[in-house]
Amino acid sequence: MEHSEASYLENPESQTLEQHKLETTLEFEKIVASIDMDRLSSIVSDYYHKAGLQDRKVELLKPEIVFDSNMALGQFTPTQDRIYINYEKLLDDARDMNFDKEVLMHHIVFHEEGHKVAKTQCFARTETSYERIRVRNAFRMDDYASYEDGNMVHIEQLYNFFNEGVNEKFAREIVDRYMQGAGDSLKGKYEDYKSFGEAYGGHLYYDEQVDFVDAFCERIAEETGVGKDLVWQSLIREALAGDGFMDGELRTLISEMFGKDFLKRLSKLNNNEDLFNLLVATVLSGSTEGLQAGRRYVELMRERAKLIQQRMKDDPS
Ligand SMILES: [Zn+2]
225 alpha carbon to ligand 1 midpoint, in Å? Predict the structure, then answer.
């Protein structure tokens, strides 16, 4: 095996931890340097243009490596304005799924840059014993309590499920467009990457969230007679330029369409199956048939997860 991480795992004694970190970081830096940020920037700029933001400069971030096994594959922190990639976890996933690590890096980095280029706002409200700080990034909101002694405590996170769905769907479009102009070798590897995901009916990362957003767009399209793609374009615009679910008009529209409890439930949704069932049902039709469709949908997701686990067992690289 030519990869440094593999030789480290095969001969744990042969390298010190420091050497391992250095080599992993060098490999990470090399892939980061190979990402064409200008092309990415021009793709995002095109979306800005469509969202009426032709004057906003695209500000991408240079991804940083993080060595922390508890951390997610990728993370954008609006409060620090930084993108972290857990490259060791990424290599694990690439190995487990037979994915090309370079392609996977592009996907994960573009997902995080998607969060970065969305609109971020910060609000403060005085409460009795603290200042309540709200950070909104696209549809997601995080509330913090800021105390006089400088202490900051995270209170709650809202609309994360929905926001990840919108952001990942957006990221997939960006990766597709980027890859159209990529070199043949990367493009070829990307086709393999996509066909693996598609064989299981999705892309593996945030599939439930993306499917949910798709169903949501479809339902709004049906209700309003506006094309599904136009509904989707307006969600992107909302993420890049709007106020997300703080927009009163959008709130009213959604409450009228899906019932007044819908947004409250959506805001707390985080892979809670019952809630998920209910929401999918609401989005699909709001009727008993909708509820059944919701259950079938969750079954389908379970089947897919089983198939993926099976493939990982059958095909260890
Ligand atoms: Zn994300």
Answer: 30
